[in-house]
Design brief:
With 486 residues, this protein is of the alpha+beta class. 56% of the residues lie in helices and 9% in strands. It has helices at 19-35, 39-61, 105-127, 132-136, 139-161, 171-189, 192-224, 233-238, 266-279, 281-301, 307-336, 377-381, 408-414, 429-451, 457-480; strands spanning 260-263, 340-344, 347-352, 357-363, 368-372, 385-391, 398-405. The protein has a 4-stranded antiparallel beta sheet, with helices on one face. Strands 5-6-7 form a 3-stranded antiparallel beta sheet. A hairpin with a 6-residue loop joins strand 6 and strand 7 (398-405). The chain is globular. The chain starts with 18 loop residues before the first helix and ends in a 6-residue tail after the last helix.
Amino acid sequence: MRSIAHRDRRSSLGAAGFLPVLFANLIPLVGVIRLGWDPATLAAVYAVEAVLSIPLAGAKALFAARPPPDDRESGVISVTETPLASKRGAVRPVSWVPPVYPRNVPFAAAVCGATAWIALFVGVAFSQVFDVPALLASPPVLASALALVGGQAIDTAREYVGRRRYAETSPYAVVETPARRAFFLVFALFALPPLHAAGGGVAVLAVFVAVKLVVEWSAFRATHGDDGSGGGRISDWLSGPTESPDEPEPIATPDAEPDARVPVHRRAAVATGVLKTLGGVAPAYATGFFIMWIAAFGLFVGGDPSGAVVAWSAAVFAALYLGAVAVNAAGFALAYAPVEYRRYGDRLVAYDPWLDEPQWAASVERLRDASLVHTRLPDRVFDAQTVELTTGFGDDETERFVGPVSDGDALVSAFDLPVRSTDLPPMDRRIATVAVAVGLAVAAGAVGLIVGPWGDSADTVRIVFLLPFLVWPTRWLWRQAYAEPE
């Protein structure tokens, strides 16, 4: 499928300009009917193309120079609100590639999960009418997959990088368009069983060709159509986001030395990111990856798999799970750990020395509702402090976390923060002890049911599905152990 359309290069060609694309996509049907081509192989190639387009878009998204839009509620790719998504600045690992924007990392990471789920749904639908393992092991399918990867890489190097089209789009636009098209394909695949029963492989291939033509038409309209051309809601939706936000105005800082500097306590920031991930998304990720592992077994292995197959597949999915968790934790660390808070006159500037870029700025006189964050365990372990405050008014009003810093008194003094004390109130050790005991009991019970002789596979499935809910009581109890500051 085509990459993200570039709407700044439109030229009205009319529907006649689509005829070459139409004829090219009808060739497979002619080949099946007249030349005896295998419809299952061609349908598999189309499916592989749709699935591969998503991770390839994720790689391209790293270089997208426009910031992601704030409104992404109607998107297929879900990126939760993460502080890294608003990060300013870029790094250039080598001179022959465009700059990589840290704010794009969450979008590139999100396509990994989207690819896995879409591939799973496509595989399940295919398994209803074809032998999926045999198709994926077929030399024509493997050769076509390699050709698709090579063709996409060449197109990315020549068009996306060579012609600097990455400078015109946002990471959301890059990943959202192929995700919508693959999502559309998944819906179409629900019609495979009755179509295969009625017309065999030819009918299935015809559906793929029809879906691909709708997708190609949406891409053609987005690239060559004028603003008044009507193509229908489906075509408009498939063409992807229509606009990418402009780069925000740069934050000016004086050339002189700042009046004050307060660096972030990096170990406390990293530890906070790790704990937030372990207590938040890690249990949900575990359930999702377990579901994919079980489904992949039923789809691609089947029967009674050997111990080696179980072990290796478990190791692969465990590595993918740990990678996803690590990326989530690294996002928080990259957002906060490198920051240094500087004062220039009456302005507070959050500056990132690693990227050599100011992240945000606010008038010291307009800082309000400042309070010490008392619910972070790493702050207590590393003797650090974090302040939550409000900056701006109206549409610019933003809740921000300043810190963690090793010297809370210096932070309050440097920026005249209305915080009475930077001393963290003591925790209620009795409640903390109960929370730890509950957590250990839940963990021991879960492990016992999974690996013990009295458990079975059904118990394992139940525990993994309930894991996000089993973590909640421990988190709730632990938060009750934090006493409110005076």
